[in-house]
Amino acid sequence: MPRLILCADDFAFSPQVSGVITDLACAGRLNATGCMTIMPNWQADSRMLADLPDGVAIGLHLVLTGEVPVTAMPLLAPDGALPEINPLGRLASRGDLPLAEIAGEIRAQFDRFEIALGRAPDFVDGHQHSHALPGIRDIVLAETAARAPNAWVRTCEEHLDAMMLRPFLGKAIGSAFHSRGLRAAAHVAGFSCNDGFAGHYGFSGDYSAIFPKFLKRPGSMHLVMCHPGAGLRGGDAIALARLQEAAALATLPIAELAAAHGLTFPA
Fold first, then answer.
1. In-domain check, residue 234
2. Would you say residue 1 has pLDDT above 90?
3. Spatial distance between the Cα atoms of 109 and 53, rounded to a whole number of angstroms
4. Number of domains the chain contains
5. What residues contact 137, with CB distance under 8 A and at least 6 apart?
6. What is the average pLDDT score of the chain?
7. Is 102 helix (H, G, I), strand (E, B) or coil?
8. CATH code for position 230
9. Which residues share a beta bridge with 123?
10. pLDDT of 38-74, one tens digit each?
11. Can you give the pTM of this predicted structure?
């Protein structure tokens, strides 16, 4: 039967975000989370993951935008911080990325995951979907093949008729566009991908009312990303939305909503 993967991105964005994700997962409100091993608090936060139920997938949420990298990256991060997604996307589209630097950073983030958890990630994706950009995706697939051959890889590719039933169509189309071809490339490399992708919205409004729209016309492995959290971290543009998502996910009848669209959850 088709299933819903409700994945909280940004574990380790801050200790408070990690705590909220842990609580929701332990309460059966999430069945996946992606980890930002680039963060200085990752090692300490990773200890929370030991409390998660066995059915919760723990993935690597690669970070190539906006944060301080693990490795020295004088070409991509000359001022010490990685670029935001739009400049990174422009570099990728022109073929101007420093791919050797990026490969070293991706390898280091894999290392930090394995050191903390003692195993490979269950899945691999990227903060702001940067893992899907041209050039970067090839590195991600190669490193995943070497380090996590049993993992699955997130793609934002989705059918237009499904996206049109959900919120924030323009953003969904943009993510699907820059992910185009990733599923095929992943399959060639031996990986499965999610079938169905949702979770885009404007980070405002009533999340409890918005969430059911993510389930319309689902795929067989329907991935819905979310970003619950608590507390404020400087520069976090979606801090309020994190709080609202956390409150909604704690109370929404997720299993019933999933079943109404032919999806199983949390299994």
1. yes
2. no
3. 24
4. 1
5. 131, 182, 185
6. 97
7. helix
8. 3.20.20.370
9. 152
10. 999 999 999 999 999 999 999 999 999 999 999 999 9
11. 0.97
Tokens 């380790």 belong to residue: 12
Distance CA(107)–CA(212), nearest Å, equals 37
Rounded-to-integer distance, Cα 252 and Cα 246, Å: 10
Residues 115-161 pLDDT 10s:
999 999 999 999 999 999 999 999 999 999 999 999 999 999 999 99
pLDDT at 166: 93
Residue with tokens 């990752």: 42
In this prediction, residue 267 has a pLDDT band, given cuts at 50, 70 and 90, of confident
Which runs of consecutive H residues, i.e. helices, occur in 198-238?
207-210
What stretches of the chain show up as alpha helix (H) in DSSP? Answer: 15-26, 42-45, 85-94, 99-117, 136-147, 160-163, 169-178, 182-188, 207-210, 239-251, 254-260
Any idea of the CA torsion for 16, 18, 24, 28, to the nearest 10 degrees?
-170
Q: By residue range, what is the domain housing residue 36?
A: 3-260
- Note whether 32 and 6 are within 8 A (CB): yes
